[in-house]
Specification:
With 151 residues, the protein is an alpha+beta fold. The chain is 23% helix and 13% strand. Strands 1, 2, 5 and 6 form a 4-stranded mixed beta sheet that branches. Strands 3-4 form a two-stranded antiparallel sheet. The protein has one domain.
Length: 151
């Protein structure tokens, strides 16, 4: 166990609904996948990810540039809650919230497992430097930006 790892492995024993705000927030691995623009097929409801990110995502760090005010600036930003995690089927398969909801362990590169917040980037899991801001892409061009790597 690395020196940075918490001794209390709360995510292995505590249900999502009983986590403190700090514990809940610490589950985020910083991958930025939830900040990608997604398209939903009108006929099949299938969700497709694009390599286009929310205007607030810093594409070089994969972090929100205004996390505390994100909902004010981007009204359709999804602020995760236990209820929403149970309803959202578009969450990436690597997402800690989804994994824990499904009773699965976190991946080795998750900072709670390895103690290194950069491991998610070094493992190639994050969107860091793989996406462009939605401010640079017209809505009509989004279909040209569909990718399969985030899921």
């Amino acid at each position: 166990m690395s020196a940075e790892q918490p001794q209390d492995r709360f995510w292995e024993t505590k249900p999502l609904a009983r986590m403190t705000k700090r514990e809940w927030e610490s589950l985020c691995d910083g991958c930025g996948k939830c900040c990608l623009v997604k398209l939903q097929d009108a006929d099949t409801d299938e969700i497709s990810y694009t390599d286009v990110a929310c205007k607030l995502l810093d594409c070089t760090s994969a972090r929100c540039s205004d996390y505390p005010n994100r909902k004010k600036q981007v009204p359709d930003c999804v602020v995760l809650s236990v209820k929403l995690v149970n309803q959202l089927d578009w969450m990436p398969s690597t997402c800690a919230y989804r994994l824990l909801k499904e009773g699965k362990p976190l991946y080795w590169w998750h900072h709670l497992e390895c103690g290194d917040p950069n491991a998610v980037h070094e493992a190639g899991i994050s969107v860091r430097e793989r996406v462009v801001s939605e401010t640079l892409v017209d809505d009509a061009e989004l279909v040209e930006h569909v990718v399969d790597w985030p899921a």
